[in-house]
Fold:
Amino acid sequence: MQPTAPAASAEPLAAPRQRLLDGLARALREHGLQGTKVTDIVANARTSKRTFYQLFADKEACLVELADSWAAGLHRAVEAGVDREAPWDSQVDAAVGTFLTAVARDPELGVVVWRDMPALGGRAAELRERDLERYAAFYRELSQGPVMRRAGVRPLSWETAIILAGGLSELIDRCVRTGRPLEFAGEAMKEAVKLMFGIGPGPGPSPGR
Structure:
């Protein structure tokens, strides 16, 4: 009688690098940044320390890559969540609302990225700069859309877009540091974007136009 072959897994394992990133995310949710150790990460990833150190210099390097991937995913969600044919103010509401909804799906990871990562110094600063530029580019491009132009929205300059993205980021940081739920910042964020889209001489855009 032939031996029975082991059943194939219905969900094949992801590549080691992705498993380690997922393992870190799980450990952060369970233990926080300070309580997470490399042994927790590799146990969650079902791999070894040797594999970990072949792929990442240390826990912080793994964290930076995870945070960058997470932030890029938020940005993709915001891009996909805006109907560029909708009224200009509805586009702004959708951009902010989609962002807050996406963050709410994994709030523990958001706390680590915004509250704990600044302690990493240079690597966290590079990530923050990259994320700031993502959103500056997004809001600048959003302000230049055909619906925006017809509504009288003034296209943002790069410098103005940086000011807008930086202000929104600071508000989020403060909410996280003080334990204030992000949804309480939603209306202020929407108002800030709409005000920036209406800056300059002359009347601003008409809502819903």
